[in-house]
Design brief:
With 285 residues, the chain is of the alpha+beta class. The protein has helices at residues 24-28, 46-59, 68-81, 149-160, 203-215, 226-231, 260-278; strands at 4-7, 10-12, 31-39, 42-43, 87-95, 111-118, 128-134, 165-170, 173-177, 181-186, 189-192, 219-221, 234-239, 242-250, 253-254.
Length: 285
């Protein structure tokens, strides 16, 4: 299968899958999700993604009929069906069941979707241009909800301006991007915003902190502002498919490019971890 879709045990190609109109995702975006990359039918850092997924489930009071281990088995079974020599985007979500449109919780079982298709890792040799935008999203950004309208609107604004991403800020405090985490390198220190309800606990963010500790690179989880973005030696964006892409321009002004040596060390280690876990040779660095 070139693509794989799973809905409550039914499996087909993505374009052939049908789901009920009354699924709670349709009217309310009432659900949570997670996603990772895979290659050679091997999931990358599945444990961390499943842990985050179950944390999101708990925060929105959705219960599913799978343990972490059972859900990983279902996801792995779907990955095994994918016919690909490249890297795969592996997405899964749970919604609060199926019922007629009503704001209160239905008395139905949760629905599980798994969604897999071939997709590349981000090319780390091509720096991004980004814009900044006041963060007017809700105050539960630590939950990986499927209700992503603010991120959709911000991403479209960036695209229309010829940019790849949006960096959100609340006042002067930088939070995260529309669909990535953002960090800076300054004076040899890797700095990332602290975990709270204003940012998603990114798995690649965590991975970079782990790499810093492994290599003896100083790292901090502390707030930073807009001015610090512009004065940073490097601005670094991460997510499950983006292993530390540098930013070269923010709001039309050149940034970064002052500590490529350290950034490449961190990128190289992250890419090597992916290659070791999946057995797949990348060409992104």
């Amino acid at each position: 299968m070139k693509t794989v879709a799973y809905y409550n045990g039914r499996i087909s190609e993505i374009d052939d899958m049908r789901i009920p109109l009354n699924d709670r995702s349709v009217f309310f975006g009432d659900g949570v999700y997670d996603a990772t990359m895979a290659a050679n039918h091997r999931l990358f850092e599945a444990d961390y993604h499943l842990e985050r997924f179950f944390n999101s489930l708990s925060k929105v009071d959705i219960t599913i009929d799978f343990s972490k281990e059972e859900l990983e088995t279902e996801i792995q079974n779907c990955v095994n069906l994918a016919d690909s020599d490249g890297t795969l985007f592996v997405y899964w979500q749970a919604t609060r069941g199926t019922s007629r449109r009503n704001f209160t919780f239905p008395e139905t079982d949760a629905n599980i979707i798994i969604y897999i298709y071939e997709a590349p890792l981000t090319d780390l040799r091509k720096p991004w241009k980004v814009i900044t935008k006041e963060d007017t999203r809700f105050l539960h950004c630590d939950i990986k909800t499927i209700d992503l309208l603010p991120a959709v609107l911000a991403s479209e604004e960036a695209k229309r301006k010829g940019c790849s991403e949006v960096i959100f800020h609340r006042g002067d405090r930088v939070t995260e991007c529309a669909h990535n985490n953002v960090q800076i390198l300054k004076n040899g220190v890797f700095i990332t915003p602290p975990l709270d309800n204003l940012i998603l606990p990114g798995t690649c963010r965590r991975h970079f902190l782990e790499i810093c500790k492994r290599l003896g690179v100083p790292c901090e989880e502390s707030p930073f502002g807009i001015d610090e973005l512009f004065s940073a030696d490097e601005v670094v964006i991460t997510c499950s498919s983006t292993f530390g892409v540098p930013v070269c321009e923010i709001d039309g002004k050149a940034v970064g490019g002052k500590d490529g040596r350290l950034l490449r060390i961190l990128q190289t280690e992250c890419v090597a971890d992916f290659e070791r876990e999946t057995g797949f040779k990348t060409d992104i660095l």
